[in-house]
Amino acid sequence: MSLDLTAERLDDAATATRLRSRTPFPSVQAVLLGAVPALLLVVTLLTGCATRTDGTTGDARPAAVTDVRAIAGRWSGLLELPGHRQPEFVEMTIAPDGTYNVKGVRTIGVLDVQGRVEAVDGTLRFRGPRATATGQLYEQDARRTLVIDAKGDGGNRATVRLNPVR
């Protein structure tokens, strides 16, 4: 058996080796080229649904509250405290007479606060035993979100974002 090392034979061998070495898996470059448009699509979709600084999403608009009875009922959502990594779940009950009760199980204990709320110039004013807060109702389609910014007597701040319990 003789070894034929002519240029034509070497080119055929190199081509055959390249064809045989292909795997059924796509190359890294092909994966990245396919991933970039998909990633751009995801970022675009998330940006359209992103939470705004007021705690609402999309086209939610402030809704004037002229009577506390318009927001009476059970609300639930998240309490966010600056410096804390995770928000905490709370539930608020607002009575038609303007009294409220906020309950939650916090990392450092139980939260159970009562107070009064009133509608003033389209916004809400909350008064509790050791804090005051302002609230704004937002509406988008049939979805309502109540955003409350609270300030404690010691200067501590918190934000609560609530949705009606159905």
Give me some keywords for this one.
166 residues, eight-stranded antiparallel beta barrel, Lipocalin, single chain, globular
Task: Describe this protein's structure.
This protein is of the alpha+beta class. The chain folds into two domains: 7-48, no CATH class; 61-164, Lipocalin (Beta Barrel). Helices cover 21% and strands 43% of the residues. The protein has an eight-stranded antiparallel barrel with strand order 2-3-4-5-6-7-8-9. Strand 8 and strand 9 (157-164) form a beta hairpin. The radius of gyration is 30 Å and the shape is globular. The termini are far apart. Mean pLDDT is 78; it is low at 27-55.
Radius of gyration, taken over Cα atoms and rounded to an integer in Å: 30 Å
Q: State the oligomer.
A: single chain
CATH topology of the largest domain: Lipocalin
- Would you tell me the structural class of the helices and strands? alpha+beta
Q: Distance between the terminal alpha carbons, to the nearest Å?
A: 86 Å
Number of strands: 9
Count of alpha/pi helices? 2
Spatial order of the strands forming the largest sheet:
2-3-4-5-6-7-8-9
Task: Please indicate the count of domains.
Answer: 2
What's the shape?
Answer: globular
How would a crystallographer describe the biggest sheet? 8 strands, antiparallel, barrel
- Average the pLDDT over all residues and give the rounded result: 78
Percent helix among the residues? 10-25%
Spans where pLDDT lies below 50 across 5 or more residues? 27-55
Task: State the CATH architecture of the largest domain.
Answer: Beta Barrel
Residues in β-strands, percent: 35-45%
User: What's the order of the H and E elements?
Assistant: HHEEEEEEEEE
CATH superfamily of the largest domain: Calycin beta-barrel core domain
